[in-house]
Design a protein that fits this description.
7-stranded parallel β-sheet; 7 strands; Rossmann fold; alpha/beta; about 230 residues; about 20% strand
Length: about 230
């Protein structure tokens, strides 16, 4: 089973939106996907609770169901803000792939710089056991801050695997338990094109580190992070 974690120590950068969007996109590609909601706010769990039966299924992983179904081939971790220390190291060690969303704002870029500098020093990342990709989130091309974000991201030894536009499609879809992959083409084709860049990296060997399966450690981590 492959584990993909969506992580950033700063809140409000779109981790849940990216985790749910990725889960939906992979489910459309016939992956057997489970989504672990590790955030006390339970936004991913609420989203799954509203997901219509007509959409490709995604299994929940919560305190009540702390292990993914046995046939799961892809586990996505929606992690909480403020993740640090042993919990952060454990999740990175047990993930083959880590996505780090970054918003185009000076505050978010400074926070991302500190966070990325830290995780690049962790052994799983240094050794190639865990692959890290950056996602520029809620971007508006042809703005000064977007150019600043592009220069900021290019300064890291980490690939920028996608740039996702700022659009209400994500908000409208999320409220219905959907993601942009579930929307009709006439509404979401620009978002599909942007996500194809992210998915191409996810499919590539560059994104697949050699981390182990989460096993019981995931359950233990979720209990600590959610106060269980």
């Amino acid at each position: 089973m492959r584990t993909i974690a969506v992580i950033n120590a700063k809140g409000g950068c779109g981790k849940t939106t990216i985790a749910t969007s990725l889960a939906s996109a992979l489910a459309w590609e016939a992956h057997v996907v489970a989504l672990a909601d590790m955030d006390p706010q339970r936004s991913s769990s609420d989203w799954l609770g509203q997901r219509p039966a007509s959409a490709p299924p995604i299994a929940p992983v919560t305190e009540a169901h702390s292990q993914p179904p046995s046939d799961t081939d892809t586990l996505i971790l929606d992690t909480p803000a403020g993740l640090s220390g042993s919990e952060l190291e454990q999740i990175i060690r047990r993930s083959q792939t880590v996505l780090v969303p970054v918003l185009p704002s000076p505050v978010d870029m400074r926070a991302a710089w500190r966070f990325l500098s830290h995780i690049q020093e962790l052994k799983p990342v240094r050794s190639g056991q865990t692959a890290v990709g950056l996602v520029a989130n809620r971007v508006r091309p042809n703005t000064i801050i977007y150019r600043e974000l592009t220069g900021f991201l290019d300064g890291f030894r980490v690939p920028v695997i996608g740039r996702l536009r700022d659009t209400m499609n994500y908000v409208r879809a999320f409220d219905k338990g959907l993601a942009v992959a579930d929307l009709p083409p006439y509404l979401a084709w620009p978002d599909w094109e942007e996500w194809e860049t992210v998915l191409a990296w996810i499919r590539s060997g560059q994104s697949q580190g050699r981390a182990g399966a989460p096993g019981g450690l995931l359950a233990a981590a979720m209990q600590r992070l959610t106060g269980g």
